[in-house]
């Protein structure tokens, strides 16, 4: 009985079908990764800002007088003297110019997402941003009857104040939480970091929660996302109340937690 010849055409068709299935599965897997990355800001590059001598020189070269003229467009939200009348809006008076410039760059690049700051930053030139940062960095923080600030808020209760004081001064080594003053300074100010001296408590709480939930992810090397996630809800609230009441301007280590 003669042996049957193999059906090479059928084998090739079956192999092509198998290849098609494999390629389809690979395509679906890649698509799923892209979708996951789009949904999770922590998978993104946190910021396009690179701190180099050239970058620092550029960000420090602003013209505060020109920035004052540009800031007329910012007053509706951030106040005439850099103090907002809404607790959910950040105060910009005396903000470190490097920190403010980075935030504007991140808004421009959509590395930090917030309406209406993204479209506003897109319309600013690089010179506009350094000039605005220079202007706000020079604004004083003492009270001005012309502004309508909501800062400071009432002092927190003793238990809440002590909870925040310990975190600001010592952190929590067992949980890997460094003291807040290590980055933001013993009086809530340090060059290169966002100033917390006169920041609104509602805004601070919203940012801590955004970092904890990874809806804000423009912190280079993820320090704020990591720390905010380790904090409890009560601790985030206590820290916002502590800084929002002006206690951050007192050296935290200078008074005991009683």
Please outline the helices and strands.
Blueprint lengths: L7 H32 L13 H7 L4 H7 L4 H4 L18 H12 L8 H6 L3 H13 L19 H12 L11 H4 L16 H12 L10 H8 L2 H12 L14
Helix pairs in contact: 3-7, 5-7, 8-12, 10-11, 10-12
Anisotropy-based shape: globular
Number of helices: 12
Pairing-aware structural class of the strands and helices? mainly alpha
Helix content: 40-55%
Q: Which blocks of ≥5 consecutive residues have pLDDT under 50?
A: 28-38
Terminus-to-terminus distance = 102 Å
**What is the CATH domain class of the largest domain?**
Mainly Alpha
CATH superfamily of the largest domain: Cytochrome c-like domain
Q: In what range is the share of β-strand residues?
A: under 5%
Q: Radius of gyration, rounded?
A: 25 Å
Largest β sheet strand count, sense and barrel closure:
none
CATH architecture of the largest domain: Orthogonal Bundle
**Count of β-strands:** 0
SSE sequence, one letter per element: HHHHHHHHHHHH
Question: How many domains?
Answer: 2
Mean pLDDT metric: 87
């Amino acid at each position: 009985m003669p042996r049957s010849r193999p059906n090479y055409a059928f084998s090739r068709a079956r192999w092509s079908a198998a290849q098609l299935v494999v390629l389809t599965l690979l395509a679906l897997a890649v698509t799923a990764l892209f979708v996951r990355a789009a949904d999770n800001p922590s998978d993104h590059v946190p910021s396009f800002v690179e701190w180099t001598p050239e970058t620092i020189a550029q960000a420090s070269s602003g013209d505060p007088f020109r920035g004052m003229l540009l800031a007329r467009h910012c007053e509706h939200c951030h106040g005439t003297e850099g103090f907002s009348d809404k607790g959910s809006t950040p105060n910009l008076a005396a903000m470190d110019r490097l920190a403010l410039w980075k935030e504007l760059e991140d808004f421009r690049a959509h590395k930090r997402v917030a309406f209406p700051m993204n479209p506003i930053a897109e319309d600013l030139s690089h010179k506009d941003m350094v000039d605005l940062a220079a202007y706000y960095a020079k604004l004083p923080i003492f009270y001005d009857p012309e502004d309508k600030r909501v800062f400071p808020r009432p002092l927190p209760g003793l238990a809440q104040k002590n909870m925040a004081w310990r975190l600001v001064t010592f952190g929590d080594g067992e949980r890997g939480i460094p003291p807040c003053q290590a980055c933001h300074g013993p009086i809530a100010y340090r060059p290169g970091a966002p100033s917390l001296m006169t920041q609104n408590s509602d805004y601070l709480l919203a940012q801590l929660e955004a970092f904890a939930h990874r809806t804000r992810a423009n912190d280079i090397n993820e320090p704020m996302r990591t720390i905010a996630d380790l904090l409890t809800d009560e601790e985030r609230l206590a820290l916002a109340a502590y800084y929002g009441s002006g206690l951050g301007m007192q050296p935290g280590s200078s008074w005991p937690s009683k």
